[in-house]
Amino acid sequence: MDLLHTEPALFTGLVFLFSLLVGSFLNVVIHRLPKMMEAEWHAQCAELRGEPMPDAPRYNLWLPRSACIKCGHQITALENVPLLSWLWLRGRCSSCGTPISARYPLVELLTALLSAAAAWKWGLSVQTLGALFLVWTLITLAFIDLDTTLLPDSLTLPLVWLGLLFNLGGHFASLPDAIIGAVAGYGVLWSVYWLFKLVTGKEGMGYGDFKLLAAIGAWLGWQMLPVTLLLSSVVGAAIGIVMIVLVKHDRRVPIPFGPYLAGGGLVALFFGADLTQAYLAQF
Description:
The chain is mainly α. The N and C termini lie far apart (44 Å). It is globular. Helix content is 68%, strand content 0%.
């Protein structure tokens, strides 16, 4: 432990390597959690209709083993080494040659880089543990929302409560600031939702976005909400305009806001205090 304290590069490198493994697991969560939720919804609907519960093979975050979506080839241990296996296989299934999405190694690399940045910034400390958990959860939520336009309560709600518990020690914000951050984060987007609905008669965002911003406020305090909202709104609006104008994205198809909120929260985690001070210094 003393060596890790005195050698931040060593600690950062170990966190980077470990977080590659975490990123591999996050890929599993991103892929499987929405399917697990869908299966649960179907089961609940069948129960409400009085229908017998259909027999289905066990499917969770651990079972069955990962396999090729086309030929069913089960991924071996050597084929499941984060980042390296994808490069070694040249992005293809070793059995049938079906392309493997480059997003899998990208999620692993993104997880490792952001985790290493947290380890370098806070060193061997409680703050690093909290930052790692927040980073991993935000990455998971961002990609699930990108795929499904869903932000699961099973992730967002525990993230709110854990943020408040974490700040009992005032690690990222004082407890009063964290409580206000959670309430304000939820309330701001809740107000925007209802204002937009009253004006247009349409829903502009989902309830998951309220809970995600509440979680960010609970972890970082209310002071980081303006930075998070500004960055996520500007980037989200810019990308949305580009998609509509250049990519001809159908305006009736919703664009998930969760990835932008998660990105804004990550920027606020690492640079929020500096950005806020730089802005206030202008006045």
